[in-house]
Amino acid sequence: MQFIQTHDQLSALFGAPSATALRKETDYLHPIYQRWIEASGFAVLATGGPSGLDTSPRGDPVPLVEIIDDKTLVLPERKGNNRIDSLRNLLHDPRISLIFFVPGIDETLRVNGSARITADPDLMISLAMDGKTPACALWIHVDQVFFQCGKSMMRSGLWRQRAAENPTPPSAGEIFAALSGGEMNATQYDLEKPQRLRDSMY
Predict the structure, then answer these.
(1) Smallest Cα–Cα separation from 87: which of 54, 111, 59?
(2) 46-56 pLDDT, tens per residue?
(3) What is the CA radius of gyration of the chain?
(4) What would the DSSP string read from start to end of 160-171?
(5) Whole-prediction pTM value?
(6) In this predicted structure, what is the pLDDT of residue 175?
(7) Residue 39 φ/ψ, nearest 5 degrees
(8) Is the confidence at residue 109, as pLDDT, over 90?
């Protein structure tokens, strides 16, 4: 197996980026990019730290994040599984990356920057959902923003109806049952899951 090991080898495979690809990058939240973010209720967040890398989903009613100004976003940390891998990483390495999705739209928006964790009481109150405040929030400084074309979405058919011939993924209950050595009951877990999620949403 041969592997690419130099920048020159890599560049030879792809060539130079187009002028359009470079033009769409900014170091701030251009008003047109702010409109995109305001339409998004879901993003994937990436961080890195001493224990390794982490990517995790974030979702809320639109908009997911609050735009403070053209260099600052605020992302509330809602109730989850309490692993807080992303937050632990940020204490060691503030670099952060987000990719914002809008259902049915093939294009995405990528934001790179740095984040600090805040539990400021007034801010937490302003970010409350269903009367419940987040445990904390990420105060994100924006360094780089760019629009991502929709080719990957189009190739995957992500927003199209799932093809009948595609493999069916295991349910959450099946996963837990397998990883617990059968100690958990898959059917019972899956039956109780919808109500459990509704009860613990915020």
Answers:
(1) 54
(2) 999 998 999 99
(3) 20
(4) SPPPTTSPPPPP
(5) 0.91
(6) 93
(7) -95, 0
(8) yes
